[in-house]
Each structure stands twice: as C-alpha cells, then as structure tokens.
Amino acid sequence: MNRKRFVVFMMFIDFLLIVSGCNRSKETDANKGKDREVVVGLVSEPDSVDIHRTSSTGEANIPLYDTLLKLDNDGNIVPNLITDYEVIGDGKEVIFNLKEDAVFHSGKPVNAEAVKLSFERLISSSPFSTNAGDIDSIEVLSDYSFKITWKDQFAPFFINATTPFLAPLDVSVLNGEGEGFEKNPSGSGPLKLVKINRGDSLVYEPYKDFNWESQKPGFDSVKFRFIPDEETRILEFKKGNVDVLLNVPYQYIEDLEKDSEVTIKRVQSDTLSYLGWNNKQPIFQDVKVRQALALAIDRESIIDNTLNGEAQAVFGPLPKTVFGYSEKIETMARDKYTRDIDAAKKLLAEAGWNETNKDGVVMKDGKEFSVELWVDDDPANQRAAQVIQNQLMEIGVKINIAVKESATIIEQTPKGVHEMLLWSYGWPDADVLNFLLFGKDKSKRLHYENEKIYSILDKAAIEMDQEDRSKLYEEAQEMLVEESPFIPLYVKENVTAIRNFESFDVHPINNTIEWTSVKVKE
Amino acid sequence: MLGNNPTSLVYPDPIDIETKTQSSVAHFIKKMKKNKGAVVGAMILLFFIITSAFAPFIAPYPVNEMKFEDSLQGPSMAHWLGTDEFGRDIWTRMLYGGRVSLLMGLFAVTLSGTIGVILGVLAGYYRKLDIYIMQFIDILMTFPSLLMAIAIVAVLGVGLTNAMIAVAISVVPSFVRVVRGSVLSIRETEYVEASKAIGVKDWKIICKHILPNVASPIIILATLEFGSSILSAAALSFLGLGAQPPNPEWGALVFVGKSFLSQAWWMTLFPGLAIMLVVLGFNLLGDGLRDALDPRSK
Amino acid sequence: MSSYLFKRMFTMIITIFGVSVLVFMIIHLIPGNPVNHILGDYATEESIKELEMRLGLDRPILVQYFSYMFQAIQGDLGTSYITGYTVVEEILNRIPITAQLALYSIIFGSITGIIIGVVAAVKKNTIYDQLAMVLALIGISAPGFWIALFLILLFSYQLSIFPISGYSGFYSLILPSITLGLGTAGSIARMTRSSMLDVIKQDYIRTAKAKGAGSYRLIFRHSLQNAIIPVVTLIGMQFGYLMAGAVVTETVFALPGLGSLIVSAISTRDIPTVQGLLLFMAAMIIIVNFVVDLLYTKLDPRIQYE
Fold this sequence. Notes:
The complex is a heterotrimer of chains A (522), B (298) and C (306). Helices cover 29% and strands 25% of the residues of chain A. Chain A is of the alpha+beta class and 522 residues long. The longest helix of chain A has 19 residues, at 2-20. Mean pLDDT of chain B is 85; it is low at 1-22. Chain B has a single domain (76-297), classed as MetI-like (MetI-like fold). Chain B is mainly α and 298 residues long. The longest helix of chain B is centred in the last third of the chain and has 37 residues, at 202-238. Chain C is mainly α. Chain C has a domain at 93-262 and 295-299: MetI-like fold (Orthogonal Bundle), CATH 1.10.3720.10. The chains are: A alpha+beta (522), B mainly alpha (298), C mainly alpha (306).
C-alpha cells in the first residue's frame, strides 16, 4: 500500500514534468562558445521584425534592413541603396538608380523588381504606408532603375527613405498570404537573423554580404535581450552579462560613470517630449490660458530632477536635429516662455480664472481648473509628470495624473477623449507638424484647428525647393509659438552604456547603433 | 495574491463552524485574549489604523511636497525612513498611503461581502437557484484572483477605483461559497422548518434566523480577505495597473522604489514591510476569530 | 466510480464552456478596436472596413463566438494580429518556462511546507510550533514582488550566486521558484500541521504507540502518510494561484513565460493572444483540479465516489 501511494505520487510529479517538457535547458548558453558575442539589453521585445507590421521599431529589428538613402553625421541625405535619383518635371515623377551589388539575406539581389514588390506590399497593407506618400505607380525601367509617380508632389519622400520604414524587404520569402516574414525575415541590412526566442531574445549574426566598408565585422554574433524591469536591466549590465545597455535609466548614469570599464555614449535624441492638450476642450480655447500654462513650466527643473540633467530644453515646436528647425524661432520662443509665475497668473486672471479656492486652485464661474494628465508607463515620464503637476499647482492649476498604456493613448487620443498628455514625437522632417501634430484632420493628439496653419503646412508638403520649404515652416512655427497649442519641453539625451569595445559608434542623428563601427575588444 | 495566497485554505470549512448562537460576549473576549496570535494581530492592525487615521496630525512633512535637495536620503533623525527621489519623506507618504491601502481593503471586502452574502443566501436558501449560481461561481473561481483582476482592469482601464472593483469582484466567489455552506446547514434546522411551517415570510426567516447565524463565518472570512485584498491591490499597483502617481498607496510606493533599489533600498523595504505586517495582522486576527468562534476548538 | 467520473467530466465541460463565454465577454468589453491599433494613426475608413472584414470582426458577436469556439476545439486559438504568430505557437513557446516554474515552486513549497508543518505538529504548543506557524503566515502574507526584489539584490547582485534575470536553465529558475513557492510553503505548512494533529489523535496511532513503535517511525509511517492526502489536494488548488503568481514573478525576473506574455498582450491590445491565453490557463486549472480529484481517490482507498 505504501509503495502504491508513493507510485501514484510520483506519477503526479511525472505528469507535471511531462507538461513542463524540459526542452529549453539544452540551449543554455549555446552562444557562449563564440568569443565575440555582443549582448544588448533592451526594455521590450518588438512585436514583429516585419517592418511593414511592427508598431515598435528599434535596435532589435532595424539592423535587418538597409535603407534606400541615409543621413550622414551632419544630417545630410546621402546615397545608400539608391545611388542617385532624378526629379522629373514638376516633381511628381522621380527616377531612382540602385546600387548593383546589394544582396538580401536570402541571397536574392536587391534589384528594381524587388524594391517595387516591397513598396507594393507596404502600400497595400502597412499602417505606415503614408510614409511613402500617395503613390500612383511604380515602374521598373531596367534591372537597377525604377520610376515612382505620385499623385501629388511629395517632398518628405527623400528624408523618409532614410528611415527603415521604406527600406526594401525581400518579398520572395513570404507565403501565399503575403505573410510569414516575422519568422523567416530577409532584408539587406548588416545583421541577419539567426534565432528568435520569443519573449526572451533575438539572435543575429553579421551578414557577410553586407558592405562592411572594406573591413571585417568586429563581432561574431549579437543577442538582443529583453529585460522589462529597469532595476534588473541595470544589474545585468553591472554584472557584465550585458555589454550594451540602451536607454540607461537616468538615475543610474552617475553610478555607472564611476566604473572605469564602462563608457557612456550620449547622443542628442531626435524625439521631442511635449506637454500637450486637447485644444477642442473649452478650457483650452483661450490663448491666454495656453500661454499661461507655457509660462508656468520650468524645463530645467524637470530635466535636473527627473532626467539627471541629461536633456536639452526646447522651446520651439521643432528640435535642432529636424529639418525645418530655426534658430530664430527657438530664441523667440525662449524669450517668450521662460518661466514667469507672475505673468502666468496675470494671464490666467485676464482669462477669467481670478478666484482661488481653499486648496489654492484657480476658479472661474465656480468651477476649478482641474485637468487630467495622461502619461505612459515609462518611469522617467511618470516622474516628470509629478514635477509638472507641482509646477502647475504654483499657478493654481490642478493636475490629476492618469497612467495609461501607450497603446491606449495612441488609440484614444484621436477620439479626443483626453484633456492633457505628456507625450513625444520623433521624426526627422518638419512634415511631422502636418501629418501628426497640426495638419487638417491630422491633429491626432492635439486637435488643434487653424486654417492658416493648415494651408501653410499643405504648401510646405509639396514644395520641392528645400529653401522655400524651410521658409514656409518658419512661418508656421512663428504662429505656433504665439498660439501655444502645446508646450515643447525637451529632447532627452540618448544614453548608451557599453563595455569591452575597441570601437562602438551611435549615429548622431537617428541614434541607431552603427554596426559597421562595432569592434569587440579581444 | 501572487500565488501565495490560497486563502481558501485558511478559511474554515463552512460546515466546520457550527452555528453558535448568542454565546456570551464575555466568553468570546476571554477566548480571544488567551489567543496570543490574535492579540498581536489586533495590535498590529490597531497601530496601522490609528496612524493612518491621524496621518495629517502625525506626519512630519506635507505628503506631496518636493524638496529636490533632500532626494534619496537614507533614514535619519530628520527623515526616519529616508526620502524618495523628490526628497519627499517616506514615513509621511507611508502614513497617507496606509489610508489608501486600508480603505481599498475595506471597500473590496464590503462590496464583495455584500454581493457574496446576497448570492450565497439565495443559493443556499432557494435550492432552485443553487445550481445556476454555483455553476457561475465555479466558473469565476477558475480564474485565480489576480488574473481575474488583471482581466477586469484591462476592461475598465487602469486606476485606483477600477483596481478596487477588480479586487472586489475577484473575492466574491469565496464569500458565496462560505455563506451558501452555512445557510445550507441552517435551513434544515428545526426552528427554520418550524417557522416555514407556520407561514413566516422568507425574508423574515432570512433576516431573523439565517443571517445572524452565518455572521461568524462571514466575519472570519472578511478578516482574512481584508488582508488578501490589500495584497491584491498592492500587486496591481506594482504592475502599474492600480494607484497612480503621486498616490502613496503602499504597492505603488514599492513599484516606484523598485527603480531605485540598489541606491535607496529604504524606498522599497519599508512600504513592503508595511504591507506584509498588515496582511499578517489580518491573518493572525482571522485565525484567532476562528478559534474563538468555532465551538469545537479548544 | 464511473458514474462519478462521468458526472465530474460533464461539469468540467460545462465549466470550460462557461469560462469561454466569460472570457469572450471580457475580451469584447475591452475598449479599443484592434483594427485601429493595427492600422495606426493614418488609417482610412475603407482600410478599416476591409481589415475588419478580413479579421471577421464585422460579423455578429454570436457568430464570432461560435466560429472561435469551433476552431478552438480543433486546437486553433487564432493568430495574433500584431505578431503574426498563432496563439498556440506562442503558448507552446512559453509553456516550458511557466510549467517548470510552477513545478519547482510546488516542489520547493511542498518540501519546505511539509518539514515546517511536521516540526510544528510534533512539537505542538512549544516555541518551535509557534515560530513555525508565524513563519508560515509570513510566507502567506509577504508580497511576492517585494520578496523577489530583495532576493535579487542579495543573492544575485551582492553574492553573485544566481543569474539576475532571464532564462538560462534550471539555475535561473531557483530564485523565481522560491519567490513563488513561499506562499505555497506557508499554506502547506499550516495544512500539514493541522492534518497531522488530526491523525495523531486517532486510534490507530495510539495503538501503534502502545505497541512501542519508535516516535520517528511513527511520524513517518503513519501520521505523515495519512496527512499527505489533504496536502495533495492543496497542491492541486495551488496550481491556479501559481499561474497568477507567475504573472508578477515572470515580470520581475524577465522570464519569457505565459505570465509575462499576458501582461504584454494586454498592453498591446493583442486580443487573440489575451483571449487564447485566458482560455488556456482556465482549462489547465480545471483539468489539473480534475486530475487531482482522481488522484485523491487513488491515494486514499477509504474515499469512494458514488
């Protein structure tokens, strides 16, 4: 009897063992055998490596792709896969010539036909198809040259072609439904996918047929590890289990700098954080209120106390790295909106918010100035939101912070159900003012209506002359500064911590790792 | 919560608690006093309840006032439990946070208790409803409470109120089960049968005979669930689904402190300790109540 | 027995069916149309309509439910709109980790719990008993996420004994299993103590004692064996709590299991994944409880089901 019970109990344990099917243990440290493995620590896993599908582009999926054009270190557009192009007539037609030695990871050539197929898939099924403009037709002229015809001139195309969104992907690996790329991807970028460990890591190797600029790759494999928890991520780096730590949490930078083996790389990010609001809400209709809010914000205090000083204050609508930025606008905005509590209070009073209740909140017609501020779940943003809350309280504006998932914010804000939000945008071209921030029916987050601005932005989008284009944007920005439909705050420094590299560069404009420069110390 | 809260096993089996009618209060108190665990539990709870209730008078600093120059200070005479990343006093924030945590527990237990008692009495008393209600409860019980709460928060949206509702709903099944069990054992007793025979209305029987007799298991369960609700709410806040900054709910304090763990352990240690002590207090008290209210225990 | 089995299976199926309805309802109440999420900010009316049609979201909800269930019965839980993976693939990818985590924490919890429970029962009403029971209660009361943080800080960071995070074989699951198993240990300790005390009171133990059986032999041959029955049931019941606990534990330790999958799926509004996972977890819990019920009869021949 005893034995019988024991047997049954062991059966129970066996059942669990079978369920657990310990098949993972074999692959433990399979890559440790190679001496030059680079481990990169990242916050989150991209939902897909398919650039036409993913809503999360980042270091872990963009090295799969080589872009059509690229930005040099000064932000000029220079040839890459596309060697040269010719704008025909009024600018609706452009002929592109491709470099002839580029090869996809599958071994197929990156020729005009392949690029055409890739564009067609982008246009028909990607949420990011607008980046290519309103394309009428794509015509293959020869093996390595093709012509794109747009319905309207589309000036931002060239800068957009420097982003991975328009990079060619190898359509030949897709299945019958045009899917399956996420498991068997093939691009023409520096890294070739080796293994996907869902939820844990992506493993790449350097692609031998990539143009390594006459050198050999300085590493044998790259593993992107996804570690959602901030503290755990930093501990893994400190222990040496991670060689490259992207987006170092600000509170740890000082600590890491003390370690002589660690190098900290700082690159000005192209992402502008801003405090925005739904301009359709009655409370934000008065320009005096909007200006008062802008005057109440002390950017330096937020930067010093939540970002460890690792950011640059921005007053104008566009940060420095973006085409369309103007020194004149920035100076003008800085002069206008440097923190001035008294001026802010005065403006609020003029707008009718002239009483104060016992909690110190300003009132108008018996209603207090109290709004909800949406912020995503990034810890640094949540800290910034609290400092903003305190700063606005000083002029009697009460903020209630509501943390939302980014997915919710992206989805709910176009419906206009929000009041305020702490959000950001990152795009290399001023057209972002049009297609995301203030364009007609495109003001998804800010719901700002201004016919004058619409017409300027529309004109700028089709202006093929870069100088005239930038004048138009200056004009639009001047109005935006005066109208204050949102408060630009800062661009964060992109802080990367590395150890054991002979060389390791991060692109100064688009902030991505330059894999051709990466060389592991031996 | 977090898998480490199989409270259903801490609960008395409903049938084990035989109804104990109107035994003297003095006897009960005497029994409770003899139970060291219950006394310790009650003392812990009393400490937290009093400090939370009088937080505005006890707290040495304003709860949300930022003093950047004092940020991340370790425990000292000026700041007993240290300061956080904005120089806010942890002890002050814990006092205010205790109000939120305790009120969340109270709300969750009251709401789930009310729903649970209604459903439990209906299921136990009206045998025709029993099978439907219990099948529904079985389905609800399939989901571990945290998972259930996460799913509910996904529907309702992130936030303190929604987290409270989610926790409350996830606790309902245990109340229904316990109440139904007790009602079943009482409705067969002679005096209920007799009352029915002489035509006393159902609601009168329920109010006069049934409810007073299921009071003990409900009180015991409520005490135990109070603790586990606080734990559930804290776990939700820890996942970022519950209390929002700058709300000093204890779980949220641990969540924030986590980002500073190796620099400022006090930000995480003390709020976590408070959660543990309060939950421990409720469990000790609940155990004591069960021993005192269960006539079989010596 | 067989009629009991039949009845039990019948209610099991009803419950799984009910769970599926509940899950489907919850999922469709979640605000946010997945189509908006897939197509992003610049979608046109037509492209939204077209995708809705392709995903079958334009059909009446009942039709959607039944076609979903029809496929689910055939082992197809749908495909994630976002990642392109089938839900079954995702589950199979990740279940080894969660299952191992559950298994190890049950083993840790049972062994620790039984030892503590036995000590408490044997030394009843002494300081050891009280200490053991306070320890058990602390295990139940302590927030696991909080314990996890300090375990990492001490054992992984300061002492470098264990990896900090991620999955790299058995070693990397030790701390997560301890975190997750603490509560189980606490409950099992309490259960072991009380069921052993019940058994010790019974006649056959007294008889064995009278016959002069040595006290250790006595404890293990008689009382523990009989006391283990409720403990096994408890282990079955723990399964659900472990599944839920895995959500937090896997997040803190960056383990690619089912728990972290559900958290990320909720935050990206990956409806098919959330739905499939909830259904799968619920079905697992129901089945494990069923198996444990059956084992129960095998373990204790005195129990007979009609």
